[in-house]
Every structure is written in structure tokens, then in C-alpha cells.
Amino acid sequence: MITYEEVLSRLHKNSDGGYRIFHSKLLKNDRIKLIGVRIPVLRALAKEWKGEADMFLTFPDEYYEITFLKCALVGALKYEEFIKRADRLVPLLDNWAICDTFTAPCVKKHRKEFLPYIKKYLQSDKEFTVRYGLVMLLHYYVEEAYLPVIFESVSNLKSNDYYIMMGAAWLIAEVLVKHYAEGVCFLKEGILPKETHNKAIQKACESFRVSNEEKAFLKSLRKS
Predict the structure, then answer these.
(1) What would the DSSP string read from start to end of the chain?
(2) How much is the pLDDT for 30?
């Protein structure tokens, strides 16, 4: 059974000072303490410590890397085990990097069961809890059957927090890439705030999966 001190020792041995400075600037959050371990190394350590999720959940969230490992270990669990622990982790999310990488492949086979959790997260007053709900929709629900859920979810967002709006734009951009016609119909309704609407178009136009003709039409839908 691994201890917190042993984990910190391994993390510090794998730290990279230059990466710590670089990543800190990307996170734009001075409250987050970084050791400076690169993502591939963290993922390798998560594989090594597979089965230690409950022990990690007892560790303090003093460092970014500890929270990342908690999410990686819990995200790798089977659905029944993941869902028992998800609500303990989601409120800890305080930055876009961990939020966007906290995936759970088990949700693919349990999308209907997980939808109530997503709806709960989207109603939170915490910026990154809401973003997590949007990210999970993006990862596992961009299919025709769930498009009404996605459109309703982004339409009902009340917050104008930056990372929520950008999460919504990212989600709608992915809809445009995979279900262009339906995404265009939604954009034409004009429901999204200007910044989110235009960012969704921008991100969709950055994709090689959208044709030049489609990109030109999307740009014509931008709000001025």
C-alpha cells in the first residue's frame, strides 16, 4: 500500500523545472501548486499505481499532480466503482487541464445512467464542475441520439464564466464536425451568447474534417 510520502518522492524525482514554469503559465491560476511532472509520466505512474484509487483519495490535494493522479485512477475504474467516487472528485476540479483530461471510458457503455450526473454538474455554481459536465458530453455523447440533450444543455447554461463558455463552444464545434447539418440548424437559432457562438464556429473551422465550403458558410453565421 503506497503512502503519500512515497508518491511525492516519485513525483519530485520526475519533476522538470522548465515544464513547471511553462505549465503554470498555461493554467493561469496562482493558487495551484505544481511539481512539474509531464503528462506522459503521470499517465505511466497512474498505470503503475492501478488499484490504488481509494488510497489516493485519502491524500491531500496539495499539488496539481496528486489531483491529476486521483482522477486518472478513478477514471480507469469500472462504471460501478467510478460512479461511487466521481462526486468526491468533481468538486476538486479547479483548472481546465485536469477537468479536460478526467475521462472515464466506462461511461461509453453507461451513457443513459450517467446523464443525471451530467445534468447535476451542469447546474452547479462551480465553474469547473459545469465545464466537466460539458467535457463529458463532448467525449461520450456527440451522437445523433444525444444531440437534443447537448443542445438543451448548452441552451440552459446560465453562467458567463470563461471556461464554461469555452467548454460549450468546444462541444458545439465537435457537433458541427460530426453532425454538420444539425449543428448549423442549432447555430441559426441564435441561442448562444456571441462569444460562445463565434468561438464554436472558429474551432469548427480549424478542423480538417470540415470542408472549405462548409467553413465559408459557418463564417457567414458569425455574430457581429
Answers:
(1) ---HHHHHHHHHHT--HHHHHHHHHHHT-TT-------HHHHHHHHHHTTT-HHHHTTS---SHHHHHHHHHHHHTS-HHHHHHHHHHHGGG--SHHHHHH---GGGGG-HHHHHHHHHHHHT-SSHHHHHHHHHHHHHH--SGGGHHHHHHHHHT-----HHHHHHHHHHHHHHHHHSHHHHHHHHHTT-S-HHHHHHHHHHHHT-TTS-HHHHHHHHHT---
(2) 77
